[in-house]
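REVIEWER CHECKLIST
Item 1: Sequence provided? yes
Item 2: Single chain? yes
Item 3: Sequence as submitted:
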Amino acid sequence: MSLRTGIQKKFQNLFVAVILNESESILRAKVLKDGVIKKTFTKTFTHTQSSETLESSVENYLIALQDEYAFVYIAFFLGAMGQGAIEGVGKSAFSKHNVDMDNVFSVPVGKQWSAYASYIEIKWAKNLFSETGLDLIFSPFVILNDFVVSQKLKNKPTCYLLNSQDNFCVAIMQEKKLHFGAFFKTQSDAIFANNSEINDWESEEKEEGITALGDITVLSDAYDDDDDLSDLGELGDLDEMSSVDSFSDVDTSKTLGHFKGFDTVRQEDTSLELYGRDLLIYKYLKSSLEEYYHNPSYESAFIEEIIIFDGYEIGSDVIRQLEDDFMMDVEIHKVDISDRMCDLAIKEVFG
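Item 4: Structure as written out by the authors:
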């Protein structure tokens, strides 16, 4: 740890995890000082516009937080299609799975498997946060892996699923080794479309200066060991750093009136939407298992158990259908993805 980082720990550091969904943005924030979480708060913003830029309310809120706290780290959950996970590391592993390693940013996990995303998706994420800056990008597979290793590891191939609001990822793992990975969207790409400027991976150049997919090696040089304390002047006076306002405590939400019966209609619409989403999960999970069993690229073995880390909602009907059709045991763990992201961001920065 550099001298600068050691001194920085004495002051309030704000970590903000951002998850952008089609209908809303979820922000979870934690304030860390002296290695202790001093405060945790959450903000949810309903989207009012379809745009290729960050929702203005979210952007303004992040800017206000940056004005309030001297040290702010913004972490982003990558929910874009151009990503995945494969067994192995290095060019031979990527070639085996027909992924051009020159066009993706990859992260080796435990020297056994790799999470990757195209440079297109990395640039898209950075462009979304062009006004606020972006410090970390987390692959869903890296987050799923953190949930997996926090449980008792399975010594036989097991299917794991991380369920988020607009997407989910599937990983077949045995202990800490990944055999198969797949990512799926369960919502449309109407919001935050990321292909208007770039239509193919080969035309995109490597992006630098940001921690991507949970890997610390691409972090900006802002915390290099060779930095001296004079650079702290760029972040404001030391006395001011320990005295902050309380913008984060202001509740920006407003309650809107509604007509009688509106809630009932909304609940029915929501139920239909969730049912359709559950069908997609079933369909995509079935196709993933078929790919795992029948593609010679994978050394497949019979799967007896599905463990779902549920960060949104998954219906009991689809659980029963998975158990009946696949003859597997299904285990559910309710999780908070944004909260886990904050913890991982803290670990990335301070170790």
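Item 5: Key structural point noted by reviewer: Residues 189-203, 216-269 have pLDDT under 50 and may be disordered.
Item 6: Recommendation: ____
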